[in-house]
């Protein structure tokens, strides 16, 4: 059998990273980790404990003091390729972390260096045995700079907002396209300009613009790339 590798999928919000990362992991029998879910779970903790004010300011000191009390883990999916559940101190928060209130506060929370170092350490622990596909913003640059396969995904903000909007609409959310677009653009900006491991393409990442691709096409593109890389290992 071939040696297991680490696969890092980074890129912009709602570009399809988790969809393709999950499909690849299922196809090749790897573990999939949604690193964004971990930042969202910490943000949910902050919201629940009154650390996010109405104007969006985060009570950083209190949140940092709480970090040792926050444990984040994942429950295995019910079916191969199915969705795993994000656990916040054992509670399944998978649905709640996708709400707009969390989307609106998560990028400011993700600028806090102590939050990042805690989550990066957890992520590195999860990848110790390799055989992992992880998606996020800084996986190829900071979490696993030596990953054997790195992909950086993007599409126009409008395309990405439309994708996320459709997804939320299907789930019965009352959110508007404008709200989603606004959130996507805001998060892109905060994620790219923060000091601590900003969103950027690793020098050795392969870039994918999937603006005109279907989910099936992008899944195939990723699996083909995996086979090419594994052949050279
Ligand atoms: O909504 P989407 O799936 O695009 O975002 P996500 O992957 O759930 O990530 C939510 C937010 O967490 C991002 O906008 C970043 O602010 C932060 N994040 C990060 O800073 N580093 C990561 N490795 C993953 C997410
Ligand atoms: O993880 P990330 O935020 O990058 O995006 P996602 O949650 O995987 O994808 C957002 C939405 O875009 C999902 O509803 C996908 O079905 C859809 N989509 C896609 O992933 N890829 C395409 N080429 C077209 C749509």
Structure report:
It is built from nine helices and eight strands. The chain has helices spanning 17-28, 35-48, 60-66, 100-109, 113-126, 139-143, 157-170, 177-193, 215-232, and strands at 6-11, 31-34, 72-75, 85-88, 91-92, 132-136, 149-154, 206-209. With 233 residues, it is an alpha/beta fold. It has a five-stranded parallel sheet. Strands 3-4-5 form a three-stranded antiparallel sheet, covered by helices on one side. The radius of gyration is 17 Å and the shape is globular. Strand 4 and strand 5 (91-92) form a beta hairpin. The chain binds cytidine-5'-diphosphate (CDP) (2 copies). One cytidine-5'-diphosphate (CDP) is lined by residues 13-19, 135, 163-164, 167, 210, 213-215, 218.
Describe, in short, the structure shown.
This protein is an alpha/beta fold and 233 residues long. It is built from 9 helices and 8 strands. It comes from Muribaculum caecicola.
Number of β-strand runs:
8
- Taken as a percent bin, the fraction of beta residues is 15-25%
Helix content: 40-55%
Summarize the biggest pleated sheet: 5 strands, parallel
Contiguous helical run count: 9
* Poorly predicted runs of 5 or more residues: none
Shape: globular
């Amino acid at each position: 059998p071939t040696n297991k590798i680490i696969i890092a999928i980074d890129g912009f919000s709602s570009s399809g990273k988790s969809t393709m990362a999950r499909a690849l992991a299922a196809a090749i029998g790897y573990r999939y980790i949604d690193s964004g879910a971990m930042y969202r779970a910490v943000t949910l903790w902050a919201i629940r404990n009154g650390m996010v004010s109405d104007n969006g300011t985060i009570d950083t000191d209190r949140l940092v003091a709480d970090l040792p009390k926050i444990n984040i883990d994942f429950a295995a999916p019910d079916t191969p390729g199915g969705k795993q559940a994000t656990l916040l101190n054992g509670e399944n928060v998978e649905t709640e972390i996708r709400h707009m209130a969390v989307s609106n506060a998560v990028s400011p929370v993700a600028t806090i260096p102590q939050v990042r170092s805690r989550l990066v350490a957890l992520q590195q622990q999860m990848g110790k045995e390799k055989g992992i596909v992880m998606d996020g913003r800084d996986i190829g640059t900071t979490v696993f700079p030596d990953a054997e396969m790195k992909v950086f995904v993007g599409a126009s903000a409008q395309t990405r907002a439309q994708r996320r909007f459709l997804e939320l609409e299907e789930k019965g959310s009352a959110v508007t396209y404008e709200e989603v677009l606004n959130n996507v653009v805001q998060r892109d900006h905060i994620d790219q300009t923060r000091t601590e491991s900003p969103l950027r393409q690793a020098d050795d990442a392969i870039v994918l613009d999937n603006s005109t691709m279907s989910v099936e096409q992008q899944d195939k593109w990723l699996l083909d790339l995996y086979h090419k890389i594994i052949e050279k290992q």
